[in-house]
Amino acid sequence: MLYIIFRKIRNIYYKRKFYKVGDGFFAHGNFSLKNGEKVELGNNVSINDGVYINGQGGISIGDDVSISAKVIIVSTGLDTNEFASKKRHVDKKIIIGNNVHLGAGAIINPGITIGDNVIIGSGSVVTKNISSRCIAVGNYAKKIKEF
């Protein structure tokens, strides 16, 4: 009983950290959030234990999205064009569509768009946009199946 009350309190706490949160949000454990005021979550989004989200460049997550344990979503990174002289960061928005599953340990890099109805395999590193209705896996993530 006490655990159920704690889970509800934790969900309320996390919901206040985001810019916008739809109905049905659920946090399965603790996760790390930076710049949550630039992150929008749709309906029925679940975030598992150990996830790291940095919303500096903006992040939009659609409806019915599950984010598995240890996923990293970072919308900012070093500017490789001026790396030697300035070590400046560049912010790029990430868009994750509806009905997406991010497998455990996946990494979503700045500026990425993931379409609707997509599964990103565990441990995948997403460095390019992923179109809708597919499964993508690997380092670097590639489509292995369309449906």
Query: Would you report the number of β strands?
Result: 19
**What is the CATH H-level superfamily?**
Hexapeptide repeat proteins
Order of helices and strands: HEEEEEEEEEEEEEEEEEEE
Q: Give the strand content.
A: 35-45%
Q: Could you tell me how far the N terminus lies from the C terminus, measured between alpha carbons in angstroms?
A: 42 Å
Largest sheet: 7 strands, mixed
CATH level 3 topology: UDP N-Acetylglucosamine Acyltransferase, domain 1
The helix fraction, in percent, is under 10%
Q: What is the CATH C-level name?
A: Mainly Beta
Average pLDDT works out at 92
| Number of helical regions | 1
> If classified by CATH, what would the architecture be?
3 Solenoid
| Shape verdict | globular
Could you say which structural class the secondary elements and strand pairing correspond to? mainly beta
* Spans of at least 5 consecutive residues with low confidence: none
The number of domains: 1
Whole-angstrom Rg:
15 Å
Biggest sheet: strands side by side, in what order? Answer: 2-5-8-13-16-18-19
Q: Could you explain how this protein is built, in words?
A:
The protein is mainly β and 147 residues long. It has one domain (2-146): Hexapeptide repeat proteins (UDP N-Acetylglucosamine Acyltransferase, domain 1, 3 Solenoid), CATH 2.160.10. It has one helix and 19 strands. The protein has one helix spanning 2-15, and strands at residues 20-21, 26-28, 32-34, 39-41, 46-48, 52-54, 59-61, 66-67, 72-74, 76-78, 89-91, 94-96, 100-102, 107-108, 113-114, 118-120, 125-126, 134-137, 142-146. Strands 2-5-8-13-16-18-19 form a seven-stranded mixed β-sheet. The chain is globular.
